[in-house]
Amino acid sequence: MKTIKWGIIGCGDVAEIKSGPAFQKVENSVLIAVMRRDAVKAKDFAERHLVPFWYNSVDALLENPEINAVYIATPPATHLEIVKKCLKAKKFIYLEKPITLNLSEAEELNEIIAENDKLVVAHYRRKLPVFLKVKELIEENKIGDIRYADIQILQSKENNIIANTEVNWRLKPEISGGGYFHDIAPHQIDLMYYYFGEIKNAKGFSTSTLNNNVDDIVNGIIEFKNGIQFRGIWNFNASDKDVKDECKIYGENGTITFSFYGDKITLKTNTEEEVFRFANPIHVQQPMIESTVNYFLGKNKNPCDIEKGVTVMKILEAFTE
């Protein structure tokens, strides 16, 4: 196999810019089919993005013999069933987060992935330059031994960090798993895991201030096996004046501060302050998709395997159970 030939299941808003076009721009990769239950919208996406085939059912797309890899970009409640179909059809899989509706499904998914099955979790921030630079600063011991990390995601009800959709399924737990926290926190938690390693313990508390059965304030702590401590607060009902998106990593000799949705890192030590700025690619998932394609072609290791996705699901549940 010399080329990864993709089919997208769920060509909605996320696939429009963040990911979809990247499948056509990465070397040894081509997007040949898309699927959406609404046939008119599937056809429209295909025509605008010059994709040869479009379908309105998962089974029809998987029957296309040219497709050897599938990007699953549907809501979490559908992930487990679609992954099972893709495995049966012998397709490689690039799976959006959160990987399933809940931890139970994630553990079931982990059990059915065989050694020869290739599945990558779309925790794409692992491959973006700004977050790779944070990892580099940590590994170069720029602030000495890490003591703890702190995340504050404070957003108003009119936040601009959640992708827009015609129907706000993210606030329907039976579809999303549980509100905006479940939608964006996997990225932040996965980066902490990526930076600090194995997790020893995690606990948390959550509440709904809007009485809509969706937790909009989540508070969690993590103890990593290496002794590093973590605390995080996510509030999706904050006032406009309190909006904040910040992660600060504290070391014995200084701090590393960055935003999950910004373009800079601030390094402060006992003797200096330095700011690093970055420009994200237009299609932010492109670096991860490139790494995924190379993994499928046997050129590198899995950039984010299923076990890492399961670990994130364990933290989500620990913070909100």
**Global Rg:** 20 Å
CATH superfamily of the largest domain: Dihydrodipicolinate Reductase, domain 2
Question: What is CATH's topology name of the largest domain?
Answer: Dihydrodipicolinate Reductase, domain 2
Strand content: 25-35%
CATH architectural type of the largest domain: 2-Layer Sandwich
Enumerate the strands of the largest sheet in spatial order, edge to edge or round the barrel: 8-9-10-7-11-12-13-14
Between the first and last Cα atoms, what is the distance in angstroms? 44 Å
How many separate domains make up the residues? 2
Can you count the beta strands? 14
Kindly describe this structure.
The structure is a single chain. The protein is an alpha/beta fold. It has 2 domains: 4-123 and 284-301, Rossmann fold; 129-280, Dihydrodipicolinate Reductase, domain 2 (2-Layer Sandwich). 33% of the residues lie in helices and 26% in strands. The protein is built from 11 helices and 14 strands. The protein has helices at 13-19, 22-25, 39-48, 58-62, 79-88, 103-112, 129-139, 173-176, 179-196, 286-296, 306-320; strands at 4-9, 29-35, 53-55, 69-72, 92-95, 119-121, 146-154, 199-207, 217-224, 229-235, 244-251, 254-258, 264-269, 273-277. It has an 8-stranded mixed beta sheet with strand order 8-9-10-7-11-12-13-14. Strands 3-2-1-4-5-6 form a 6-stranded parallel beta sheet, with helices on both faces. Helix 6 runs antiparallel to helix 11 (306-320) and helix 9 (179-196) crosses helix 11. The longest helix has 18 residues, at 179-196. The radius of gyration is 20 Å and the shape is globular. The relative contact order is 0.17.
